[in-house]
Design a protein that fits this description.
The protein has about 425 residues and is mainly β. The protein contains two helices and 48 strands. It has a 15-stranded mixed sheet, with helices on one face.
Length: about 425
Amino acid sequence: MLTKRIRSLGASALLLATLFTFAAPAPVRAFDHFIPRTVYVGYETGSDGSPDCADHDYVVDEEPDYRMNDALNEVFEDAEGEVDSLTIIICAGTYVYGGDIDSVDFAVNITIRADEGADVALDGDGFGVGDGDGVGDGVGDFQLLYFGADVQHITISGITFLDGWASAGGGGAIFVYGATSLTVTNSIFTDNSAGGGGAIYVEDSSLTVEDSTFTDNSADEAGGAILVYGGTSLTVTNSTFTNNSAVWGGAIYVEDAISVTVEDTTFTLNSTDEGGPGGAIYVGGFDATLTVTSSTFTLNTAGGSGGAIYVESYDVYGAISVTVEDTTFTLNTAGGSGGAIYAEYGSLTVTSSTFTLNTAGEGGSGGAISVYGGSLTVTNSTFTNTNNSAVAFGGGAISVYGDSLTVTNSTFTNNSADIVGGAI
């Protein structure tokens, strides 16, 4: 059974003010009567029979009729028009969804986090797959969380997202359209899938990801783990992406965002197929910056170009600027050009980075880096004892067909190309 016990002190305070105040009220600004609200959601008891967390406001039953999606839908319904700041604390447990989550589409700041020290998982149970238990057996989009245009700032912390599914749309775990920002910290995303953005889809919003893990997520089209379209920025820090897949951007796909920053992050075994670019990261647009620092790319594979990173400027005059610093690329492979990095138009600057055993495929060039129609500057970097290789054309380490190439204080050893330019 699902019960609710809302803490609504604001309503009582307003009633007392009405009873004992006789002067004409002063004009009230929008939201002045609203109060922040914090609610606890979870099972009545833990596995040992003890309370999971104090004073549940919404109690989830394990029966299919009253699961976590029902509780969250009730929380949002009760908060709409009543609060401008909502914090949802989820008690320890794995919560299997029994149906769809409603779109949250009202002016509010939302925080959803695990209770202190609690292990919390939201499980879509593979919606639409049909595993015989009668849960999630259907067709459509069943994101675990869904936020619309009027929501302001969203923060998610300490939650594991499993088996979210949105075959016809985006964001198997989290979908955000038009909100001011989404921040995800200390969270885990596993086995989520969607048409685009297997775990997270963000459109016309900014996204920040910190201290989080993305494993085995997939997209039918773009962004095996994350898809960002439009908006101001994507920032990823101290996170891990492993074995995510899509046709474009095996782990991350970004289009028309203003800035993309990746720092202290590891990408391993991410891939694209069907000739798609960007085994780990794809960034495309008219005017953007991509900055990658202190990160590691290993064993990522692109069916097309850019075994680890693919960057494409939609403007032939090269409006995209890419900076890669203190980053390691090892054993990345492209079916086309740029075993590690491919950049089309724009400018690429690589500093203090190392390239080892990266490979461009048949018909491709630039075993480590390939630049077309733009400029490349390489400083204090190493392409040594690596056997970076271009199977067909030139540039075992670097290939540039564009404006300019500048290489300073860098080392090239044991790189190869089948036709011309064993190193460059």
